[in-house]
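Key idea: predict the complex, not the pieces.
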Amino acid sequence: MKNNHIDNDNAEQNHAAYVSMKGVGHKFDPRPDAPMVVENIDLDIHRHEFVAVVGPSGCGKSTLLRMVAGLLIPSNGQVSVFNRPVTEPRDDVGIVFQKANLLPWLTVRKNVLFPLKHKYGRYSANDEKRANELLDMAGLTQFADKMPDELSGGMQQRVGIVRALLLNPDILLMDEPFSALDALTREQIGFDLLDIWKEHPKTVLFITHSITEAVLLSDRILVMSKRPGSVLDLIDVDLPRPRSSETIKSTRFAELTDTIRGYIYEPHVPA
Amino acid sequence: MNPTYLPKSWLAQQVNRFAPALFFIGLVLLWELVCSVGEVPNYILPSPSAIFSAFFDVEMSRWLTHLWATLRVALMGFALSIAIAIPLSIGMMRSELMNRVLYPALIVIQSTPVVAVAPLIIVLLGTDDPSRVLITCLITFFPLVVSTTTGMLETPPEMIELSQSLRAPRYRETWQIRIPYAIPHIFSGLRVSITLAIIGAVVAEFVAAEEGLGYFIQFSTSFFKIPQAFAGLIFLSIISLLMFKSIQWIQMWLFPWSLPKKK
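Result:
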């Protein structure tokens, strides 16, 4: 049985590599001459660290996330969580998908409870209480009995986050979770995510194609090259927390985004 | 300027609203006119008024007997076809081998004209309900299999990943994700199938029956009671339409989320 609730205050564990990728590479086509999607990724994520991954479209960011989730087994190298190789999906991982991925035939509350219903076939009154608390935390109480399509995109994605938190995972994997939202909603939900993260510390792997979002939210940023995706740089985001809209105005914020932009956009080649 | 923004008179609004009904009434009036002006004999093309009076020439209890016979066969065939099609679709979705083996067989069954097979089925199973139900089932189950399978296979990969990330048993993936996702598809299949079920029942009655609307139409025609045959035909269309609507009502009642959103 995997231990989902490791002592929170064990400093040594917190600073050890919690999620570790060593020489991770993947290709979907098993033939030897087939092209790699991601290549040679080395990354150690500490416990309760917020790591963002940015890179151009198709660089294999989502593939990387799926390998950490145990949904894909890497062709090369190894992903391990707490020194155990990941060979299948783990109980202590929650996934937030792009576009919420809610089930349209269930109410908001039942969507949040779906992981229990789906995994064990039932849930208790206590679980329902927990779902209500999580919904309350995300400011969704009044929408609990609505159907997903009655909610705005931002609200739907909040439900998606709450659903991922239901089983109290230690690792939260987020696959471009806010990419379908408009800019204003996107910024607000980002700050809300940081509040949740502060209250319920998780190890977060956050895939995004928004450079500002990555800088605003994370502790470190993995910058990936275009396909086959490999590590271009690993940037420490030394901005103070709590972050706010003031953070965006700081010069350091601008420097960091510029550095990353330099990696993502290739130098202009005159025609 | 866009003409839709111009205010319309009350009359124009009402005409627009009842356009489908008005078109239908116009068609019936035209039919009546052609029959009376052209002096078309009733045994060639009966006028709507002749059909209407023929309807009352037949006792209500006789209508109900025929109606029930057709409806009974249609609904039994339809139910049997649901009972076969849904499990079959799940099997074909789950097993690639089953899909490869069964799909060609289904195509063969579907492309064989049921009308041509019907007499053979009667020879095989006799002239009672079982053969009529089987004929109805044969004509209805293909659209159901296709729509159910398509719906389940179109389930977004992220929903399947959600299931896999929870390491849920596969029957729950089918039952809690794929089947609900396929509901809108299943219902469009059911709408097609229910009208086919009426056709199937009538085809079966044409081949061998002592009651039913199909039998009644054939019987009336052979005695040159053409207005009566037309009355039966209209009865049949109404039943078919009602069945089609019932499927929509059931969907609205049980799965309101599965209906297309109104703008």
